[in-house]
Specification:
The protein is of the alpha+beta class and 725 residues long. The chain is 31% helix and 29% strand. A hairpin with a 4-residue loop joins strand 33 and strand 34. Helix 11 packs across helix 13, helix 13 packs across helix 14 and helix 18 packs antiparallel against helix 19.
């Protein structure tokens, strides 16, 4: 993350008497390592610290992590055993790939006869380009019989002699029959170097893509193992007994042991930490999260309470790594104004940080005395239309942050706030050059910069079919105020800056849930096979420390690709938020009415559980059936589920199977696209079980029964059923 140019350190929260245990989140950035302490019960931020990232220390980034933790505990006044949860996010894997700092990989292909041809072609993965002119260091060896121990030893010896520091075994169809890959690893184990098999990284078909994903994972394995061991030892030495978790690229965390097996999951995890913060702290259920630094803005989506993920592109090739779908725009708080033809025609991509210039709005007023506007070329090869000020105090950049402050878009106390008088003085020479006033110049500047962000935001909202009636824009990062408020005004969407936006990433790390995704390609998957994938995902997060009673599993069955996908999430501890923060009936009703775009008097309470309330209204339509939109709000007044047209029914666990069968049968749709079961969601205890990813009635009802198992027969259940168009 680019450091913010504010000349004064941002005030930290005052250390408070600490009645509860704390959750610690540490975000290891390229320049600084940020750490936060969050109260485990109230989930409120109680302290934050910033230390330089220790890239060049003999213990590497582990030293900075421990230093940040030590300072944090002193600020909060906690002992190491008061830490109930500890997680860190790191850019180390991403940087290793970007910089080409990877280990040579030895790839052992398995196959005989015609089956040997596709694996032998895998030697071509050595053509993968890490950086311009630098290719992936890959050495290939082939074995025809994986049970021939002598042949395997010879292949391994050849690869190690060629320089391989880590091994990968790959065989066609190993996702179905992994015995060959396992046999190779067992035989190679005595050679004492790290190793993995392609089927351990993903269970999806596609030999080349599966192997490519496994090879990239292996290339960063030695470096990540070394760091994991150092961090683990350092945390233990510091006296922290909580298990160490690591941020994943899909918005969740994983155990350190899981990171040792699949370090590739930490690639691209930087933006994921920020959106996890928006999801958990800001409790966004539908919207766009914009994390703005000094140079760029990362844009990601939260849809129906879940982050949007997709298979990531790594080293210019598609992979089987499911990562946050984040799209980056080269506009941030430090983006400089570009002028031509008497108007601001663009903002950035060059920022004040890269140009080596201070922000004009953070100067002293006397430093701006006699300011004149000139245009410059910030770096060799840049256009010569970047506007800067030549003033008594030197040369200053006019930035998006300057414009936002001049226009009153930056809230008082925000990380990017400055003296409004200085901001207006910084914009006055630009206004004079454009023939307008300060407000006009600032608006023109922000319009030019935010347009780029708006185009991507609108495209992502369209791609993920976000409901504009409930979507919100949430800004994070130190430069949030330079983009999000103006974008909200421009689009007409509600927008806000996240609390503690400058440390939203480490907050996201501290609050993230344990997550695991299991994917299988199963043509004609049976109910038992679908339940098997679901249960495997649930068991995986429980094995990593998630409390079993808090685990939620979302299952999706894609009939076009025959992919069965289960995503399980769970907290490492059962958390009970401070009841004083809960909203009242009137507040929740007003929030539901606002989301439904109707008057509170027209909204009815359709059902309720101890933690959720279901609201609905009617929308008569001319010549068509009346719609019944529904909103489900939690005790904090946050919309957790919205349906454009749904049926709501209340029952008990004991009676639910029969009622659900009737509801599903009556709401099943028939058409040219085939038979489609309705989208079903169940409100159970504190959870919303989302079963909407299953299109067939049999597996859908089987999953519903699995959600009901082990619950008391008289426990209430609320079903929300949507007919699919």
């Amino acid at each position: 993350m680019t450091p913010h140019p504010h000349p004064h350190p941002h005030p930290h929260p005052h250390p408070q008497p600490q009645p509860h245990r704390i959750r610690v989140g540490i975000d290891v950035g390229g320049t600084f390592t940020d750490a936060v302490a969050v109260d485990s019960a109230t989930l409120e931020l109680v302290a934050q610290v910033k230390v330089p990232t220790s890239h060049h220390h003999e213990d590497g980034v582990a030293h900075g992590i421990v230093e940040a933790l030590d300072r944090l505990l002193k600020d909060v006044g906690c002992a190491p055993d008061d830490v109930g949860f500890l997680a860190h996010g790191t850019t180390q894997a991403t940087n290793a790939l970007l910089e080409g700092d990877v280990a040579p990989v030895g790839l052992i292909g398995i196959g005989t006869g015609p089956g040997a041809l596709p694996t032998k072609r895998l030697a071509g993965l050595a053509a993968l380009e890490l950086t311009p002119g630098k290719r992936l260091p890959l050495h290939y060896a082939h074995v025809t019989d994986p049970d021939d121990t002598k042949a395997v030893h010879a292949a391994v010896a050849t690869l190690i002699a060629a320089g391989a520091q880590v091994l990968v075994a790959s065989e066609p169809f190993s996702v179905d029959v992994p015995d060959g890959e396992r046999a190779v690893l067992d035989a190679a184990r005595e050679h004492g170097i790290p190793m993995t098999a392609a089927h351990q990284i993903t269970s999806l078909y596609g030999l080349r893509k599966r192997t490519r994903t496994a090879v990239v994972n292996a290339a960063i394995l030695p470096k990540m193992l070394a760091t994991a061991d150092l961090v683990d030892r350092s945390i233990a030495t510091a006296g922290v007994t909580a298990p160490l978790m690591v941020m994943r690229c899909d918005g969740g965390v994983m155990s350190l042991d899981e990171m040792r097996r699949r370090p590739l999951l930490t690639v691209l995890s930087g933006p994921a930490a920020g959106v996890a913060g928006a999801l958990m702290q800001e409790r966004v259920s539908e919207g766009v999260f914009l994390e703005t630094g000094g140079t760029s803005t990362d844009i990601s989506v939260v849809r129906r309470g879940k982050v949007a993920v997709r298979h990531a592109t790594i080293l210019g090739r598609s992979s089987y790594l499911s990562a946050l779908d984040v799209r980056t725009v080269g506009v941030g708080g430090g983006s400089m104004a570009r002028i031509a033809g008497g108007k601001v025609h663009a903002a950035g991509p060059r920022s004040a940080h890269i140009a080596g210039l201070p922000y004009a709005c953070f100067a002293d007023l006397e430093d701006l005395a006699g300011a004149e506007l000139v245009t410059v070329t910030p770096l060799d090869g840049d256009p010569d239309d970047y506007a800067v000020l030549e003033a008594a105090g030197g040369r200053f950049a006019i930035t998006m942050t300057c414009a936002a402050n001049a226009l009153g878009r930056v809230p008082e106390g925000d990380f990017a706030a400055c003296d409004p008088e200085v901001a207006r003085a910084a914009l006055q020479p630009l206004a004079d050059a454009l023939g307008t006033d300060v407000a006009g110049a600032a608006t023109q500047f922000l319009d030019a910069g935010v347009k780029q962000v708006k185009d991507v935001t609108e495209a992502m909202m369209h791609d993920y079919r976000l409901d504009r009636d409930t979507a919100v824009l949430v800004g994070g990062g130190g430069g949030a105020a330079s983009v999000t408020p103006h974008l909200a005004a421009d689009t007409g969407l509600p927008g806000r800056i996240a609390r503690h936006n400058e440390v939203i990433s480490p907050i996201g790390v501290a609050l993230a849930l344990v997550r695991e995704q299991i994917e299988r390609i199963i043509p004609g998957a049976t109910q038992e096979q679908i339940l098997g994938v679901r249960n495997e995902a649930e068991a995986a997060v429980v094995a990593q420390g998630a409390a079993p009673a808090a685990v939620e599993v979302e299952v999706t069955v894609d009939p076009q690709t025959n992919t069965v996908r289960a995503v399980a999430t769970g907290a490492t501890e059962l958390r009970t938020q401070d009841r004083t923060h809960r909203t009242g009936d009137t507040e929740r009703l007003d929030a539901a009415a606002a989301s439904l775009r109707t008057a509170p008097a027209t909204v009815r309470v359709l059902a309720a559980t101890p933690t959720h309330t279901v609201y609905g209204s009617e929308q008569p339509r001319r010549f068509r059936r009346t719609r019944h939109p529904v909103r489900v709000l939690d005790a904090d007044g946050v919309v957790r589920l919205h349906a454009a047209d749904a049926t709501v029914a209340t029952t008990t666990v004991g009676e639910a199977p029969e009622l659900l069968a009737d509801l599903v049968r009556n709401a099943t749709s028939y058409g040219d696209g085939g038979v489609r079961a309705p989208a079903l969601r169940l409100l159970l205890g504190t959870r919303i079980a989302d079963l909407s990813g299953v299109l067939e009635a049999g597996p859908l009802l089987a999953l519903a029964r699995s959600e009901l198992r082990s619950r008391a027969a008289d426990e209430p259940v609320v079903a929300v059923v949507e007919v699919r168009s």
